[in-house]
Each structure stands twice: as C-alpha cells, then as structure tokens.
Amino acid sequence: MLEDPTTMEVPDDDVLYHVGRIGSHFVVMVVCPRMGIEPAATALANMRRSFPNIKHVLVVGIAGGMPCYGPDLQEQIVLGDVVVGVPQQGRGGVTHYEFGAWEGQKELTVKEHTLHPSAALLTAVNNLRSVHMQVAGSKIPKYLEELRRGLNERSRQAYEDPGAEYDHLFEDSYLHTDRGRFCQGLCDAMRAKLRKSRGKRAERKSDQPHIHYGNIGSANAVVRSSAKRNELHAKHNIICLEMEAAGVMSDYQGLVIRGVSDYADSHKNKKWQGYAAATAAAYAKELLLLLPAGGGSSTGSSLPDERNGTRGDGWYVGRDQFHNSGGGFMNFNMGAGYQTNNNTAGNQYNAPFYGHPSAIPQWPKY
Predict the structure, then answer these.
(1) What is the DSSP string of 269-319?
(2) Which of 60, 189, 209, 295 gives a 20 to 30 Å CA spacing to 26?
(3) Do residues 86 and 127 lie in contact, with contact meaning Cβ atoms separated by under 8 Å?
(4) What is the pLDDT of residues 262-287, one digit of tens each?
C-alpha cells in the first residue's frame, strides 16, 4: 500500500521504522514484538516519543467477527468484510470488555474507559460512508489489485479472496474437536452455512467487502468460542473481537479498522487472514486519501525539505508486525497491518498505527 518504501532509524530508539507515502501523507511503520493490549500501548508510547507531534492514529488489522447483528440479527458479516469502530449507543467504538470490577460471585461490571475517534477521523469516516453510497462505491477493489500487482506470485496468492465456497459458518453448538487439524476432512460440512444459504445480506462479489460500523471488543484473551462471542455481543453490542485497540484507545483518539478473518469460534483458522488484512488496509488507504494532510511547513510544502531539515505537516506514523507465536517476527513494507486473536502455533498478525507528526527525525533520502 505504500509508495517509495524504505527504512529509517531514530536516535535513542531501538526500533527500525519502515516509511513511505500514501498520497500526500508520509507513513511510518514500526514492529511490535508481541500482540496484546500492553504491547500495543507501549508501541504507541514509543512512537509518540520518537514522533512527538502525532495527530492521527489508526489501528488496522484483522479480527473475529460476529456473524449476525443489528435489529432481529438481520445484518450479516462474512469473511473479508471490514469493521470500523465508531461511537454507538454511548460507547466510543471500542470496549475493553476485561476492564472493570468483579461484583458478587461471577459478574464482571465493565467500566467504559476508552476514548472515541477524533472529530477529524470521524468526519473522514462519514465522508467516506457518503462516497460509498454513491454509484462509484468503494475503491477497495482498485487498491487490492494495486497491492497484488506489486507482489511476486507466491505472495500475491496470500492476498487473494479465497472465495465464498470457503466461507463456512458452523452451527454454534457444533465444535471443532482437534486444534491440530483443519476443518476440511474433520468437521461435517452439513453443519455449516455457506454465504448463499445465509441470505442476500451475506452475498457480495469478490474484492467488494461490506463495510460495517459499530463497537469493537478488545482484550488480551483470545476468543475461540461462539458462546462467548454471542455473550459479548449481547452485553456490549460488540460486532468484532481483537487484541490491541484497547491499549491505544485508552489514551488516544484513534480509529480502529479490522478485516474479518474468522467468526471467533472453535473453527477459526488462518485461511482468510491475508485477504482480511488487505481489505482493512485498502479501507485505511481510502480513508487517508480523504483526510487533509495539514497546514504545511515554513517552506509552504508538506514534503520534507532536505536543504534546511524542516518537516511539514501530512506525516503518518504506523507499526506493522508479522509475528510467529513460536518466536521471532518479520517486517513487511506495506500499509497493511495484521492481527488475529489466535494464539496457536504458526503465523500471528499484528496491526499498524498511523499518526501525524509535523517533525520526523532523520528522514532518509529515497
């Protein structure tokens, strides 16, 4: 998703930043070594220290989705759709559902403490919603194609839409019995619904995800239970679940954007992670291109001036992580960032932040 990607180091900061552009905005991404609320908060704190004039923050990645929500559960979420955390029914868009007070013997009373997105970000979201209602619709298919065009064949396949025939929504009471095996060849496909049997609201064309706006649940715990997922939806009106946003939104008015890679049930697997991450990143890019870059520098330009070292507005900061639960991590020079609430062995994906500092130290030459 980035133009002109490169890397840079900041003095007194042991993180390697990956930088590039999205339109008139400059993007910086930093690797977080672990997923979870506390590592996310630490990563953002370090970024704000290295880039002290951060203005906007986006948390972009993947999550488990609530299959049905809304009045009479008529709204349908399918794999690859995008969920955007916005204020709903007095909530700011993110609920830290593990934060609160235990009362009685078993009841946790959740205390709302996360912030809502900034006015500028919410304005951009509302503008984009208006654009998507027009005939032209979303530009997500265009950005997904551009993303794949810049990858080799093997990497490109990871970001292709797996197809509706691989989107299985199993009955809540039907559990996956062996975490070491995939559903194929183990689970009874007759106990699952495909999109075509879930109604018109679940149908969509390839590369054209539905965008859902609502409350996102965040905690350190992995949710791999349809019963728990449904309980959280009933209590807090949560429509997707992830593991970083509460660490950011407790202190900063950011925006959370998640691609749905599973249904937060016992059948969750990694097949949809790459594509879901790409759809979330494509939405984030479309949003950034509607967000004004800012007021410019003393030279009248939003670009860095290498002659005198001044930096203008229009900078965006982020982090990106490809994390393996067996240890170690890898970086991607992309605008996408990936997160899954899945703690099994194998690839884990974490999310980037985007910020807006008007001064970046040691901006490298392209």
Answers:
(1) -STTHHHHHHHHHHHHHHHHTTS---S--TTS-SS--TTT----S-EEE--
(2) 209
(3) no
(4) 999 999 999 999 999 999 999 999 99
Distance, in Å, from the CA atom of 43 to the CA atom of 45, rounded to the nearest integer, reads: 5
Amino acid 11 reads P
Q: What is the C-alpha to C-alpha distance for residues 29 and 19, in angstroms, rounded to an integer?
A: 6
Q: What are phi and psi of 198, to 5 degrees?
A: -105, 0
Distances (CA, A) of 257 to 61, 71, 203, 277, 333: 7, 23, 21, 10, 19
Distances (CA, A) of 147 to 210, 261, 340: 19, 18, 21
354: β partners:
58
* 30 three-state secondary structure: strand
| Whole-prediction pTM | 0.81
Give the angle 127-338-192 at the CA atoms, nearest 5°: 90
DSSP 116: P
Q: What would the two tokens of residue 337 be? A: 């960032």
Element (H, E) at 317: strand 315-317
Can you give the length of the chain in residues? 366
- Read off the pLDDT of residues 54-98 as tens digits, 9 standing for 90 and up: 778 889 899 999 999 999 999 999 999 999 999 987 778 999 988
List b or e across 295-317, with b for residues whose CB sees 16 or more CB atoms inside 10 angstroms: eebeeeebbbeeeeeebbbbbbb
